[in-house]
Amino acid sequence: MTTDPNKFDTLLVANRGEIACRVMRTARAMGLRTVAVYSDADANARHVREADEAVRLGPAAARDSYLKVEAVIEAARRTGAGAIHPGYGFLSENGPFVDALERAGITFVGPPASAIAAMGDKSAAKARMHHAGVPLVPGYHGDDQDDALLKAEADKIGYPVLLKASAGGGGKGMRVVESAADFQAALDGCRRESQAAFGDQRMLIEKYLTQPRHVEVQVFCDSHGNGVYLFERDCSVQRRHQKVLEEAPAPGMTAELRREMGEAAVRAAREIGYVGAGTVEFLLDADGSFYFMEMNTRLQVEHPVTEMITGQDLVEWQLRVAMGERLPLAQDELTITGHSFEARLYAEDPEQDFLPATGTLTRFALDLEGAGLDADKVRLDSGVESGDAVSMHYDPMLAKLIVHGADRDQALATLNRALAALDVQGVVTNRAFLQRLATHPAFKGCELDTRFIEKHEATLFAPREVTTEAYAAAALIGLKQLSRECESDSPWDRHDGFRLNAPHTIRLALCATGHDLTRAQAPDAEDVVIVEGRRETDADPWQLVIGDETLTARIQHLEGDAVAVTLNGHRRRLQARLADNGVVVMADAAGETRLFWRRIDAIDHGQHEAESTLTAPMHGTVVALLVEPGQKVEKGMPLMVMEAMKMEHTMAAPADGHVESFHFAAGDTVGQGDVLLEFAAEE
């Protein structure tokens, strides 16, 4: 460390993944040495590989590694780090951590603990904002957390209401309650999530505005009394209260409204003695009224869109302010140039209610040259590379794709071309869903609000027309898998369609409606396509019968997930991979098609089996068992709760009946596909 207490030459980044890599990139440009920390699950992660030094913190679970204050501080001591950048999440808004750093003589790249505490308690923050003259949404922010009182307050406010963890953020411990009948179950679920994420079960309640936009203002303050706002971002497109697409500046923003919101945000920051980068989040109603929602006392995930339109490096600003310097620019020196979008790439399956996904990235690349894109207009902030594993232990965000254009239309066109050029293989992602969002007429027309995805669910999730090539590829992969399952030379042991003195024949059912043919919720007959495959010997091509078409077909594996499918002599290259009882096919740049497949003679038996069991839809941890074995339940009633990548998933009864037994207890780790319980349906 240097002799000047305000200066440091070594920076420890107390985070992982994309944000750790992004912070270290600026730190290196400023001539600072970088130190990474890691859990056992991240021993070979990208942020570890890129740092000058790296220190192990502990086991995979965040509570045993990234959230261990003592271990992080000890890592800083061992490496001589004079400052710690927390990124976002983990310890980024942890006041006791900041206090501990101050006692250890280590600079925290962020606000003082008092500011974190002032905004960390959402209820107290509302009172402070009222005092500062910042507009508030009607709600309850009191200390009394009695269930009956909270219910009464919600009834008084009027449904729908938003339940939100008082100490929370990032969509954790947050649920919309549509009616009084749903309140208690939602409260219990929010408290569990809040306790797991923040160690705090306190809740606040707000009136849920039905068509608001989520507009936030980037603020920055230094220790010399200076404060500015770097304009606004629109983050209205969300799922489960987590942002998916963000843009800057906000569409339709007038100069007067921008100034009013910006000045209100700076007032909010000054009220709590803020220093560093912060974001004041507002709900913007259709009539132009705006209401304080919360302040994130850290750098936001979506900060790159602000960097794109202002030309400023916000991490550099953070580091300079932490060194005691003044803000680089005054308010009248800040300007907006063009428009920017950010799309968050998640390891999740939008077709399966956004269930988080795990696996190994066989390929992760962005071909800008091939797509004819300008490297100055496209930026990919990621924490992964080809070959990296995606763990169940952490947030499912893999990367952020950020673009810039002269105006909104140009930026949106660039975003779509960049999404098409993004090649991600080996793990299910939301890439195709992001393309559907970005090309949706309502999004292109700036018809934005926080329920955008819910409002347009019918079109965003509408079944896409499946090409013959996709059906053929899925069938060929299914036939190949069945052929591989037989390792015996005996014809009596084979189940790959072998018949004595007759062609091998296998009939497959393929479904593209999102129904897993191994689960109890069977698709309608018209949603299933039957494919018959026949061939004389293993060396012959397959004769596929798809509907009324008969095709001579071969499949050849290329590199990664690339395959070549030849149909009647016409060879096509596409991406195809196995995924959870099905095949994901990407036949063009426009998106992906998922086809579930199963041998036709196994469907009836498989559905009967599914009625008696429930399997884990993802790798995760059992949080709670909600019923007792033998207890009578109705179809749709919650049976147990799983958690993965910081989000809860509830398993519901597939029919009226009762649970015969649970195979796991609360706290147990389960793998995707594990049978969770035995269920007996009523006769």
Written account of the structure:
This is Biotin carboxylase. It comes from Halomonas shengliensis. It is a single chain. The chain has 6 domains: 100 residues, Rossmann fold (3-Layer(aba) Sandwich), CATH 3.40.50; 140 residues, ATP-grasp fold, B domain (D-amino Acid Aminotransferase, Chain A, domain 1, 2-Layer Sandwich), CATH 3.30.470.20; 70 residues, Dna Ligase, domain 1, CATH 3.30.1490; 121 residues, 2-Layer Sandwich (D-amino Acid Aminotransferase, Chain A, domain 1); 136 residues, Glycoprotein, Type 4 Pilin; 66 residues, OB fold (Dihydrolipoamide Acetyltransferase, E2P), CATH 2.40.50.100. The chain has 18 helices and 39 strands. Helix 4 packs antiparallel against helix 5. It is globular and about 80 Å long. Helix content is 26%, strand content 32%. The chain has 683 residues and is α+β, with helices and mostly antiparallel strands. Strands 14-13-10-11-12-15-22-20 form an 8-stranded antiparallel sheet, with helices on both faces. It has an 8-stranded antiparallel β-barrel with strand order 24-25-26-27-28-29-30-31.
